[in-house]
Design brief:
Blueprint (H helix, E strand, L loop, with lengths): L8 H14 L1 H8 L7 E5 L2 E4 H12 L15 H10 L3 E4 L21 E3 H8 L5 H4 L3 E4 L4 E6 L12 E3 L2 E5 L11 H8 L3 E7 L4 E19 L5 E11 L1 H6 L41 H28 L3 E4 L7 E4 L6 E7 L6 H18 L6 E6 L5 H9 L2 E6 L4 E4 L1 H7 L7
Parallel strand pairs: 6-9, 14-15, 15-16
Antiparallel strand pairs: 1-2, 1-3, 4-10, 5-6, 7-8, 8-11, 9-10, 10-11, 12-13, 13-14, 16-17
Helix pairs in contact: 1-2, 1-3
């Protein structure tokens, strides 16, 4: 079987579609390939393991002969790259250390803290300068194995993603201004650290300051406004810079202090006026029927129980011990497998616009349970069935309360405190 017999572009497109449907690991397992290290097929802003795609596409074009196995042909410039480019596809070749024998473009070497013009960056990253204004804040450049991240701490001209510093880390919001963000394309690249992440911040018209190279240390779902003001799901990334970036980057900030106060503008203090008459309470025109109220409360109780049952299974699977409940008080508490410190968990279901009420209740309950039923060194954790807003998570964290979110299949640490307190609670329930 010869790789030159792969002549159908449609067969390659069909293999790409199957790759997307199955996911990378399942696709590679099905066809018996290891993950690619250097040669990738670049298509519609995504990267695909080129040798596996060629092997699968061969079987699609020649079903009687079957797909090519990993040992049927070699990868590289003269085989896979040449065949795919002959069919009109674009290849991405990961740069290697040292000399560049195969002609792939080397990664740019930038100076941390220096301000670069779009013209300079266009030459370094092999794109038109205007691309930095039109492509958004996350720009993938597969030909130099780079993901460019642009942040505007304090808000950009057209939209505020609420990026901010926590110590030397940058909390960075994913791509997408309208509707729920998705874990795909550039967001997925960053979560997996698929490329080298070059981080810049706005520094004037057509200029960007290089903050350094960073690794995504953690990502989680949160909530925030989109460009229309509607609340939507967003992805938060914790970016940690290399030593050089940390040495020359912006000064660290207090990890529990808010970085901006603009959102508090609607709450303005005023002198107390004892002559002011409170506004009368107005009952809604259409009060909820008793049957609907009971049904809603019953559903909330069932959701609460399912959340606790899932948490119990996940803790047990992760090696936690003495997992107990206290009827009428503590939802669950358990001892960590590493140092046996106890964590008190309070579960809250988030529905509609009840986040503020539920998180306030959880904070007071956790403090009360630790005071009356626990020990002074017990740790506190709120468990929810939906992401809380980033501002709310930061507030709870400042009070020593971690936030753990359950998406119906797995638990996710929201913020660094939950990751430190609960650890890798990744077992799917």
């Amino acid at each position: 079987m010869a790789i030159q017999d792969l002549t159908s572009r449609d067969a390659v497109l069909a293999a790409i579609a199957e790759f997307r449907e199955l996911g990378r690991d399942a696709f590679l397992l099905k066809y018996g390939y290891l993950r690619a290290r250097r040669y990738f097929l670049s298509f519609d802003g995504e990267l695909f393991d080129s040798k596996a795609i060629v092997g699968a596409a061969f079987g699609i074009q020649h079903p009687g002969r079957g797909p090519l196995t990993h040992s049927d042909f070699s990868g590289g410039d003269a085989t896979v790259r040449a065949r795919l480019e002959a069919l009109g596809f674009t290849m991405s070749v990961k740069p290697i250390e040292g000399p560049d024998p195969d002609g792939s473009k080397e990664q740019p070497r930038l100076e941390v803290g220096r301000v670069y013009s779009w013209d300079e960056l266009g030459e370094l990253f092999h794109c038109r300068p205007a691309y930095f204004g039109s492509a958004g804040g996350m720009i993938s450049r597969p030909m130099v194995w780079a993901l460019i991240l642009i942040t505007h701490i304090g808000g950009g001209k057209s939209f505020d993603y609420d990026d901010h510093r926590e110590g030397n880390d940058l909390i960075y919001t994913g791509r997408g201004q309208t509707g729920d963000q998705r874990m795909e394309a550039q967001n997925s690249y960053l979560a997996r650290n698929q490329f080298t992440n070059f981080v810049f911040e706005g520094a004037g018209t057509y200029r960007l300051r290089f903050l350094g190279l960073a690794q995504c240390a953690q990502h989680w779902w949160s909530t925030g406004p989109d460009i229309t003001g509607a609340t939507r799901r967003i992805i938060r990334f914790r970016l940690k810079f290399d030593v050089a970036a940390e040495a020359k980057g912006p000064e660290p900030v207090d990890v529990v202090a808010p970085t901006r106060t603009r959102r508090r503008a609607s709450f303005t203090p005023r002198p107390f006026d004892e002559t002011r008459v409170p506004a009368p309470f107005v009952q809604g025109d259409d009060p909820e029927p008793l049957e609907e109220t009971l049904a809603r409360k019953e559903k909330a109780a069932m959701d609460h129980h399912r959340l606790l049952a899932a948490l119990n299974r996940a803790l047990g699977a992760a090696g936690w011990s003495i997992i107990e409940e206290m009827p009428g008080a503590v939802d669950l508490w358990a001892r960590r497998p590493a140092d046996t410190r106890r964590v008190i968990f309070e579960a809250k279901t988030l529905i509609g616009k009840n986040e503020v009420h539920q998180t306030r209740s959880a904070l007071s309950q956790l403090l009360e349970y630790r005071h009356f039923h626990g020990e002074p060194d017990d740790l506190l954790c709120l468990v929810t069935n939906a992401p809380v807003s980033d501002a709310r998570e930061r507030f709870l964290r400042s009070q020593g309360v971690a936030v753990l979110t359950y998406d119906g299949a797995a638990f996710e640490a929201a913020g660094p405190l939950a990751l430190e307190m609960v650890g890798p609670l990744s077992q799917r329930t």
